[in-house]
Amino acid sequence: MTSQPSSSARPTASKGKSSLKTGAQIIVDTLIELGVDTMFGYPGGVVLPLFDKLYDAPINFILPRHEQGACHMADAYARASGKVGVVLATSGPGACNLVTGLATANMDSIPLVAMTGQVRTELIGNDAFQEADTTGVTRPVTKYNCIVKDVKDLARLIKEAFHIASTGRPGPVLIDIPVDVQVNKTSTDGPDKIDLPGYRVRTKGHARQISMAAEAINNSKQPVLYVGGGVIIANASEELRALAQKANLPVTTTLLGLGSYDQSRPESLDMLGMHGTAYANFAVQECDLLIAVGARFDDRVTGKLDTFAPHAKIIHIDIDPSSISKNVHVDIPVVGDAKHILAEMVKEVKHQPRKRWFSKIAEWKKKFPLRYDKNSSEIKPQYVIDEVCRQTKGRAIITTGVGQNQMWAAQFYHYSMPRQLISSGGLGTMGFGLPAAIGAQIAKPDMTVIDIDGDHSFNMTLTEIPTAVEHNLPIKVCIMNNGYMGMVRQWQELFYGRRYSKSYLSNPDYATVARALGAVGETCDKKADVPKVIKAMLAEKRPCVVDFRIEREENVWPMVAAGKSLSEMDGLDILERLI
Amino acid sequence: MKHIISALVENKPGVLAQVAGMFAARAFNIDSLVVGRTEDPKLSRMTIVVVGDDRVVEQVRKQLAKVVPVVKVQDFAGEPVVARDLMLISVAAPPDKRPEMLSLIEMFKGKVVDLGPKFIMVEVSGPEAKIEAFISACKPYGIKSVARTGTIAMPRAAKTDV
């Protein structure tokens, strides 16, 4: 990540030889030195010394209603801005409430620094009040974590945390800080240089591997670029565009890759995978060369591995060597930063017409477009998203819950800018949408931020509506309310004989709830009202929740059932019958 | 196939938990894991014996290298290497069986380190196969308990730049 100030430290003005500072002061000063101006967090007993220093620090502090919300907000702030998100919580329950948020960020490689308070050093291990083994609990869901036992190490460890979080394959880093370390004083002239002998990041790709990849592209008759979130993280969309257009390559993206490539371009195949387009999946299955960039061959993308891209030679560009040949055998690995590697590849590739390949793709596109029943008298969720896309001219930041709402948001909004879709891909965290919208709106105050959510996803974190109200954030929430856990219901319909076991519950009237919490609340239950309700929503300056009562048993099509090959897509016949 | 993997790690708290946690989270099977200090007080060496096909072991190597405090990872498979286990074993040895037992210990170049009325404790070191063979040889006499260090290893002279 390039937008974060490097940790090679500008000296702070207050750094004098003789001055003594408390740990809490060191934390605040170090954060400011690292360029942090926004934080998310929740106070508690053992972080009071730090909160006392935050009282008059020049940091925009966002107080959520639950630590999980804070963590998702910081995550989405990072996704939207490219900066490191910072979240703060107290010990025990505060730290444990971060776990879902950390795991979400970890799966999607999001740069996040979490700081937690801890009980006094001498009490650790005694089952003290609000004690939890935070580094133990969070170890599997962070890129790195540590506990600070000596105030002298504090500044260095914070700098290391930011460095680790934001470089290489980014990820969340947690620092656990006992309350006595926040109170203890130390002289501020101690060493605070990063010292990480085991942490090296390879940014430049190997020149010979790059040449081999470029040659394979030049020789390929039926190539496909398969692009993941790594391209967005690496800020490499421009290089991707240059490569695809110079070499004349069709481009498909993962869910997290949406926005890395302008979907309005004819060579865009949109999203691939379980709920991807037929033309993307068929192109992958028939390609002779698959160029994966910043993607990790997730099971939701590949379907059945044995039959994935059976005719393809595979190039894999990734900054994380452990991603390469993890799930599929890779023929030409290139380890390094996508931005650098793609820029180098652009120099070596040649334009190839590939007329037959593109005309085959054009046929698939014509035969199997994404569609929905426009003649239905019910509100189709796809129609709502279509209309949101039309009215925002495809320029809004979209956050999502998880499930059907997320897949429809991926299929029917058209993305053209990186960092435009903010969604929990790897972990699939329901409840992500609303706090993510808050974090994204804080990062991008001038953009329209819309949470396309499900009713059940929204239920999980709707407690954060007052946070948006308090900070006057004009976020919009579009609830695709079908009264079901839609994706669970869809699987129960398809694979469990329509036995809708525990996949519905009684929802409140969301418009009333929103109003009670200080936001604008609307209900839309007539198809004819959809355009004007969306228009009013977009004009609203306050947080706004719209409860769209959508068709209850609408399914996401097409679909590759779990364990099936990408070429076996269900629902294409259903889509073909719709005109 | 068994692979001996040697990892040089920073000598600081939590490193063992990070490495062990990674193995558990990724469902890799560990045969043995040994940690000890090195000539450099800042570094420890972990010697890990893992079982798996080449793809699994390649992932083990890469995932280990990814753990932040892990400085260097080496897979010794296919390399000339000296690998040793140390074992303490307590075997039933009543007075009438002792001469027999002692010649067995002699054959394995073991050492008697404790002698009780019914049991003797023997120290044996060597390649894993030898240790296993000694255990099998002791079985008929009655084994009370076994403590093993697990494998430590070092490449032979041609390649000692670890």
Structure description:
Chain A is an alpha/beta fold. Helices cover about 35% and strands about 15% of the residues of chain A. In chain A, the strands form 4 sheets. Chain A has a 6-stranded parallel sheet, sandwiched between helices. In chain A, helix 3 packs across helix 18 (about 435-445) and helix 12 runs antiparallel to helix 15. Chain A is globular and about 70 Å long. The two termini of chain A are about 45 Å apart. Residues about 1-15 of chain A have low confidence and may be disordered. Chain B folds into 2 domains: about 1-75, 2-Layer Sandwich (Alpha-Beta Plaits); about 80-155, ACT-like. Chain A, domain 2 (Alpha-Beta Plaits, 2-Layer Sandwich). Chain B is of the alpha+beta class and about 160 residues long. In chain B, strands 5, 6, 7, 8 and 9 form a 5-stranded antiparallel sheet that branches. A 4-stranded antiparallel sheet of chain B has the order 2-3-1-4. The model of chain B has no long low-confidence stretch (mean pLDDT about 95). Classes of the chains: A alpha/beta (about 575), B alpha+beta (about 160). The interface of A and B includes residues 324, 325 and 326 of A.
Major pleated sheet of chain B: 5 strands, antiparallel
Assembly type of the chains comes to heterodimer
Report the sheet-strand fraction of chain A. 15-25%
The pair of chains with the biggest contact is: A-B, 20 and 22 residues
Predict the CATH topology of the largest domain in chain A. Rossmann fold
Class from helix and strand fractions of chain A: alpha/beta
Specify the CATH architecture of the largest domain in chain B. Answer: 2-Layer Sandwich
Q: Given the C-alpha coordinates, what overall shape of chain A results? A: globular
Largest sheet features of chain A: 6 strands, parallel
Task: Bin the strand percentage of chain B.
Answer: 35-45%
Q: What is the top-level CATH class of the largest domain in chain A?
A: Alpha Beta
> Can you count the beta strands of chain A?
20
Indicate how many domains the architecture of chain A comprises: 3
Query: What's the helical proportion of residues of chain A?
Result: 25-40%
Number of helices of chain B: 4
Low-confidence runs of chain A (pLDDT<50, min 5 residues)?
A: 1-16
> Mean of the pLDDT scores of chain B?
93
Count the DSSP helices of chain A. Answer: 24
Poorly predicted tracts of residues of chain B: none
- N-to-C span of chain B: 23 Å
